[in-house]
């Protein structure tokens, strides 16, 4: 009985998880960029039904030389990396509603 209850909870959680969706031409998109000590990443979201639905994600492990960059330089690098790898999504969607920038750090 406990296993069945756990299964139904898990199933309920899986049904509400956002999935990556294709972009719609002209749709307003949001770009999130983040940087940590050894990697940068970016993700494009579309806002639908008051939810942010992921469209695409890119990340890059930083070589040793780029790991020494200042945080602002890493965030700029994340934006450059995102524009290069997410160009086709930007061409479909000329409207960028918001750019969120986050610095991430791992605490050991």
Automatic annotation (TrEMBL):
The organism of origin for this protein: Artemisia annua (Sweet wormwood)
InterPro entries per the UniProt record, alphabetical: DNA/RNA_pol_sf, RT_RNaseH_2
The Reverse transcriptase/retrotransposon-derived protein RNase H-like domain, residue ranges: 2-91
Protein name: Reverse transcriptase domain-containing protein
Spans traversing the lipid bilayer: none
Gene Ontology molecular function, alphabetical: RNA-directed DNA polymerase activity
Keywords from the named record: Nucleotidyltransferase, RNA-directed DNA polymerase, Transferase
SUPFAM superfamilies linked: DNA/RNA polymerases
Highest taxon listed in the record's lineage: Eukaryota
């Amino acid at each position: 009985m406990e296993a069945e209850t756990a299964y139904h909870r898990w199933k309920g959680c899986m049904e509400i998880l956002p999935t990556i969706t294709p972009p719609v031409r002209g749709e307003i998109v949001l770009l999130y960029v983040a940087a940590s000590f050894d990697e940068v990443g970016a993700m494009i979201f579309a806002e639908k039904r008051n939810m942010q639905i992921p469209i695409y994600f890119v990340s890059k492990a930083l070589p040793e030389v780029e790991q020494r960059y200042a945080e602002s330089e890493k965030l700029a690098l994340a934006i450059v990396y995102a524009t290069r790898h997410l160009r086709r999504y930007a061409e479909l969607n000329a409207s960028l509603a918001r750019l969120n920038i986050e610095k991430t750090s791992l605490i050991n």
